[in-house]
Automatic annotation (TrEMBL):
Protein name from the UniProt record: Ribosomal RNA small subunit methyltransferase G
Assigned protein family: Belongs to the methyltransferase superfamily. RNA methyltransferase RsmG family.
Keywords: Cytoplasm, Methyltransferase, rRNA processing, S-adenosyl-L-methionine, Transferase
Any one of the GO CC terms: cytosol
Pfam families attached to this UniProt entry: GidB
Gene name of the encoded protein: rsmG
Binding site for S-adenosyl-L-methionine: G79, F84, V129, E130, R144
Entry's Gene Ontology molecular function annotations: rRNA (guanine-N7-)-methyltransferase activity
Subcellular location: Cytoplasm
Domain of life: Bacteria
InterPro entries linked: rRNA_ssu_MeTfrase_G, SAM-dependent_MTases_sf
This enzyme's EC code(s): 2.1.1.-
Length: 200
């Protein structure tokens, strides 16, 4: 028996994604089971309650997925951790070529395993983004809850040919060359906002 039924996952996600495509629920359920299993022996996320993992990690990531430009075809998730927001986005928008960049070995090993288990096409960059060849760019770069947003943004901005999508507590100083829209409140929380910046 899964920890949470697919119906329960859909109910928790309703404020973020009112009508989840039915084919994403089995994948989200499998992702949750794998994350709970790995998190019991290695610290991938401080959130341990399954409903909170669905609400905070899955919900916020899928909400970000709804706010991507319709023409986004490549996406880099900068500092993906246990896969957020890039992995739920890869589940929701399988037509986007998603790259998950994570420099910590145990986390990149987990997301590699999650991508394999879920049958996704996402790529993993198991190193710091700064070590990627300079010429590699992505339509959109996402950043969520990275520790040093100023440093991360200066490394992320040159990688974004079009958009930066940030899930963050406070609006950061925008990098030059991007115009940010008004912050979008994230459902069920007052502690973070969604910000989309578009290249001028
Ligand atoms: C606080 S965690 C947040 C993880 C995830 N985005 C989330 O919202 O749960 C930040 C992650 O970014 C990774 N990271 C920080 N700087 C990075 C860089 N330059 N390249 C790749 N990964 C980086 C860290 O190893 C860490 O796992």
């Amino acid at each position: 028996m899964p920890t949470l039924s697919e119906a329960r996952i859909a109910t928790i996600l309703a404020p973020f994604l009112p009508s989840p495509p039915p084919d994403i629920l089995p994948k989200l359920s499998a992702y949750l089971e794998l994350l709970l299993k790995w998190n019991a022996r290695t610290n991938l996320t401080a959130i341990r309650d399954p409903e909170e993992i669905v609400r905070r990690h899955f919900g916020e990531s899928l909400f970000a997925g709804l706010h991507l430009a319709s023409e986004a075809n490549t996406l880099l998730d900068f500092g993906s951790g246990a896969g957020f927001p890039g992995l739920p986005i890869a589940i929701l928008r399988p037509e986007i070529a998603v790259t998950l960049a994570e420099s910590q070995n145990k986390k990149s090993t987990f997301i590699q395993e999650a991508v394999r288990t879920l049958g996704l096409k996402a790529e993993i960059w198991a190193a710091r983004v700064e070590t990627m060849p300079q010429t590699i760019q992505f339509h959109t770069v996402t950043l969520r809850a990275v520790d040093n947003m100023v440093a991360a943004l200066s490394a992320a901005a040159p990688r974004a040919s079009n958009d930066l999508l940030l899930l963050t507590g406070l609006p950061p100083i925008p990098p030059t060359g991007f115009t940010f829209q008004k912050p979008i409140p994230i459902p069920t929380t007052q502690s973070s906002i969604l910000l989309r910046g578009t290249r001028d």
